[in-house]
Design a protein that fits this description.
This protein is of the alpha/beta class. The protein is built from twelve helices and six strands.
Length: about 290
């Protein structure tokens, strides 16, 4: 199965490259997956700007990066099957917009790109949410949830998914509205630690919630972030479809490989730092 040479790997899952998913998901589910892409594509092309979700989210991301100096963006899914979604978006977004020159070859004059990162649900709450809530950096965050879990789970008669979603709603509320010193004092908190328990709020979040995590919804989510990435790249004037930073590393790896294999001349041709690193490896290789 062929596909166009202008389809980059990070944009290719809904091309012929994605056909290996068919034996795993089944033809009907794969068709639903593609339908999700198509629905979001049509929305991006036809929706008015004020209702165009990828356009609005892309504009917000540019706003956060260029006017509020945000350097990273958190992806926080409250759906376990999306536990690798942030990692997927890392390549899509950072490989696309991590550029220092415009399409015409001139250097950019603004910041471009953000570090995308994240973990699912309560894993993140007990790891890095502290930085998002009370740190000095502005970190926009996208919260993703579904109304119906893939596998309902109860514990002692309690619907675990409902508790999970209570955390989803609570986090976005806390980030939006925070907690004032007066509210902290009203809880009887000693004055010496009041300031440590104040939350400024006004931390930007976007909440995405779907009825269930169907193949169509996954397709829509991927397409959503593809178009967000395109919007940002278009405003910055960069080429969101090349990745020369990746290519340089590949080229240098081919040059260094003979040195790693013990070729003295190839090692001598390297810069001093690389010589020392490869030399250490050669001396300690078993």
């Amino acid at each position: 199965f062929g596909f166009w040479n202008w389809v980059g790997g990070r944009y290719s899952v809904d091309s012929a490259v994605g056909l290996p998913l068919v034996p795993t998901l089944g033809p009907a589910n794969f068709a639903d997956f593609l339908a999700g892409f198509h629905a979001l594509d049509r929305h991006f092309v036809t929706a008015e700007p004020a209702q165009n979700v990828p356009l609005l989210m892309g504009l917000l991301n540019v706003w956060y990066v260029n006017f509020f100096k945000a350097t990273s963006h958190a992806i926080l899914p409250y759906a376990q099957y999306l536990h690798r979604f942030a990692a997927y978006l890392q390549q899509l977004t950072m490989e696309s917009n991590g550029k220092g020159v415009r399409l015409d070859g001139s250097p950019v004059t603004t910041e471009t790109g953000e570090v995308f990162w994240g973990e699912p649900g309560t894993n993140g709450q007990h790891a890095f949410y502290q930085l998002i809530h009370q740190g000095t950096q502005l970190i926009p965050a996208d919260f993703i949830a579904v109304a119906n879990p893939a596998h309902p789970l109860t514990d002692g008669g309690v619907d675990v998914h409902e508790l999970f979603l209570a955390n989803y709603f609570a986090q976005t509320k806390a980030l939006a509205f925070g907690k004032t010193a007066e509210e902290v004092r009203a809880e009887g908190t000693p004055e010496a630690i009041v300031s440590a328990r104040v939350f400024k709020g006004n931390r930007p979040t976007t909440s995405i919630i779907a009825p269930a995590l169907t193949p169509s919804v996954v397709g829509q989510l991927i397409a959503l972030y593809e178009h967000i990435t395109f919007v940002q790249g278009s405003i910055w004037g960069v080429d969101s479809f090349d990745q020369w930073g990746v290519e340089l590393g590949k080229q240098l790896a081919l040059q260094i490989a003979p040195a790693v294999a013990g070729d003295a001349a190839a090692l001598e041709a390297q810069d001093p730092s690389t010589q020392n690193l490869v030399g250490y490896y050669l001396r300690h290789r078993s």
